[in-house]
């Protein structure tokens, strides 16, 4: 009798466990799926925009070069600045001639310098915990042997049959699998030149192209993350978003581990998916769900040869951008744009290495942390500083909110993160003498130290504040550049 009861209980538990891993094609069911923990712990990822648009690699400053095809064919332009709209068309016809089409870039996309293992080593040095490659952008060109791409366009339209004649996604996945970096795949919903991509034929587009192509990508490479994008003014029912996610969560080979973002239709943003996304913003928001800010080192995701040194975010600003986002509970997905040959520009490589050097010392205050009861500590003044940029907030804007304020504006003088009983106070400027950490109470077990330094940190509780006496350090004793972290162990709840 006892054996029968145990057997019945085992069956019930097994059925319950199985049912928890099966999701139906409706948001009520899909939204109950727990987000795999690795994503919220990761905090820092690398975005890679690479495709046919990397061949011209040109766009006016303040605009997205990966939109080259759209700018060219529609004579429109959007970004930071005032444009006539014909800038790309004028450049293109002067450089390549009026009869040269966007499709003519395909045989020129040879990826001759592409070494995925070198990319992976660089991303490791940067301290990234995941990477996301544009396997197919809005032009529909696939970086893997996708039969749907060539069939739908009626011409060679993937990297195996034209240009590089290589499985660029496969090489990327194989290289990252040799590391501890999670594999992400960007996958565009929008396809500008696909004849089935119209409001009237969305059902055919989904059945014959989109869904089988996504299945092929997932079944072949088994990514850890799918970064969907470009749903246009098309809702979740027309995109059959619930059906897609039900397959990913319940039937795909990565059903238990896959993480997806929120860009599956024009009405799913910051409502559905495993995490929410933001793009080139001030990043001062926080959400009740994991979230991610994406931006380039410049003001374009794709490689843009038109950008100069001053258009690239400084290393200090990149570090503070990461800190600002993490203090609000988010992740930073920082983009690099390789050129057509697959070479990541040296200045981008340098920025990633600089971030990695900082994370070697301060990673404890970033990876695996969560937002504390408050994200930062302000100085006196107006907190409502706004960027004057038209569409995309530059990376260096964070400096105006920390170390280089405009007159009358407050700054964030301390950022906070937490892990267990510990709180981390990250300082954008190294204090000359002391720093007051407001509204923090110590306990009998509290210890305070400076990450990366063995020098003793003296401190005292003064009313509701902790006053920290910063160690006097020579330049060669500084544990890092850009920002400094005080570790507060065992503070009061």
UniProtKB/TrEMBL annotation:
GO MF: alpha-L-fucosidase activity
Alphabetical list of InterPro entries matching this protein: FUC_metazoa-typ, Fucosidase_C, GH, Glyco_hydro_29, Glyco_hydro_29_N, Glyco_hydro_b
Pfam families with a match to the protein in the record: Alpha_L_fucos, Fucosidase_C
Residues the record marks as site: May be important for catalysis: 294
Swiss-Prot/TrEMBL keywords: Glycosidase, Hydrolase, Signal
Cellular component terms per the entry's GO annotation: lysosome
Enzyme class: hydrolase
Sequence ranges assigned to domain Glycoside hydrolase family 29 N-terminal in this UniProt record: 14-364
Domain of life of the native organism: Bacteria
One of the GO BP terms on file: fucose metabolic process
Entry's EC annotation: 3.2.1.51
Residues covered by the Alpha-L-fucosidase C-terminal domain: 412-489
Signal peptide bounds: 1-19
Entry annotated with the keyword Ion transport: no
Family: Belongs to the glycosyl hydrolase 29 family.
Function as written in the Swiss-Prot or TrEMBL entry: Alpha-L-fucosidase is responsible for hydrolyzing the alpha-1,6-linked fucose joined to the reducing-end N-acetylglucosamine of the carbohydrate moieties of glycoproteins.
Protein's name in the database: alpha-L-fucosidase
Protein source organism: Phocaeicola sartorii
Taxon lineage: Bacteria, Pseudomonadati, Bacteroidota, Bacteroidia, Bacteroidales
